[in-house]
Specification:
With 325 residues, this protein is α+β, with helices and mostly antiparallel strands. It contains 3 helices and 13 strands, in the order αααβββββββββββββ. 25% of the residues are buried.
């Protein structure tokens, strides 16, 4: 009976975690909707003001053209008395709008809009950080102990004795050409595969200019060049040349993280078809593959990428998950 109660409690806790994740996603979606609505309202107000200025200036142009026509006609008149009578009214300055004044007001309006949007963005970012932080805490409860599988490692890769670190060693080692081994791309898989449930792991990418992380299905091609995309059984994000981040979706999606990630968290929900990537230190969301269909075992996927003459010599390191309630 005690065991049964424990199992029931675990079921309730798991359901609660799922609800927390879904709620966080809804809150984040609401924040983005609020931001878009505010931007749309500000845009409409700016467009209205701009249209009013244009109409006012067009009216002024029309009046000036009429005045120019009158002056042109008077330049040919021989009625000097009439010319003297209307001279003061034609030559007196009109209440014309000043272009620098208009430019200044427009600039001030844009500055006000920019400040409002900046303030709104800061508020949204703060709320999103709290939301993602909550998501991470929930997902970290599904942390698993990941170890690299040397039988899958491309021959240039050097794995640490504990199976937690991998880097490119430049020199191709003489290793058995097993069916499961990558022979061209410098990649390696985790030892354990997952065919159900949820799992989470974290990887240190600090100091690297190039890396690839994610999960791959068991039947992924191990020989020759491989294509990193879901249709070929790979769900990954990467960094190239130190500043080019991309989600290897179909088609690929360029990413612009707020800060350079130093530790990346990977979460998978097998039944929901979900693969999420997070910047652990800044508690920010990087990218999510959604509505995927998994039918095979999924394995953690690691690509430390070529050494590049020492520029990318730092290893990928599987780090213990620090979960703080």
């Amino acid at each position: 009976m005690k065991t049964q109660k424990d199992v029931q409690l675990m079921i309730q806790n798991t359901i609660k975690k799922i609800q927390d994740i879904k709620h966080s996603a809804e809150v984040r979606k609401g924040f983005y909707t609020e931001l878009l609505e505010m931007m749309e309202e500000q845009q409409k107000a700016a467009e209205k003001q701009e249209q009013e200025l244009i109409e006012e200036l067009e009216l002024e142009i029309t009046e000036l053209k009429m005045r120019n026509t009158e002056l042109e006609q008077l330049s040919h008149t021989e009625d000097h008395l009439h010319l003297l009578q209307i001279h003061s009214s034609l030559c007196s300055p009109r209440n014309s709008r000043n272009w620098p004044e208009i430019s200044m007001k427009t600039h001030e309006s844009l500055e006000t809009l920019r400040r409002a949007l900046t303030q709104l963005k800061d508020t949204i970012d703060e709320k999103l950080t709290l939301t993602v932080s909550t998501e991470l805490k929930v997902m970290q409860q599904y942390a698993v102990d990941v170890t690299l599988d040397p039988d899958t490692a491309q021959p240039k890769l050097i794995l640490s004795d504990d199976g937690k670190q991998v880097r490119d060693g430049d020199i191709r080692q003489k290793l058995p050409d097993k069916p499961e081994r990558f022979d061209t791309c410098v990649d390696v898989l985790g030892k354990e595969g997952f065919s159900s449930g949820r799992f989470y792991f974290e990887v240190q990418v600090k100091g690297k200019t190039d890396w690839t992380l994610g999960v791959a299905r068991e039947s992924i091609n191990r020989k020759g060049e491989i294509t990193l995309r879901p249709s070929d059984g790979c769900w990954t994000v990467w960094l190239r040349t130190g500043d080019e981040y991309k989600a290897c979706d179909d088609p690929p999606v360029s990413l612009s993280p707020r800060v350079k990630p130093r530790q990346v968290g990977v979460f998978v929900d097998y039944e929901e078809g979900l693969v999420c990537f997070y910047d652990v230190e800044s508690s920010s969301h990087i990218y999510s593959f959604t509505a995927q269909s998994f039918t095979e075992k999924l394995y953690p996927f690691f690509g430390p990428c070529p050494n590049e003459g020492g520029k990318n010599s730092s290893p990928l390191i599987i780090t213990p998950v620090s979960y703080n309630k």
